[in-house]
Input
Amino acid sequence: MTQTLAERINEIRCNKQVSVQTIMVNGISKSKYFAYMRGKRDLPIHDL
Output
């Protein structure tokens, strides 16, 4: 199975039990995070 980068990032986040809330505290808004995951925005290296 081939995964996109966004799918892999989300899988790792879930496996490590990192909440979206934690991502938000660290500077990425919820809407921006989900836009990355849906492929609606490019994921810049500094957010990665």
Q: What stands out?
A: Residues 5-38 form one domain.
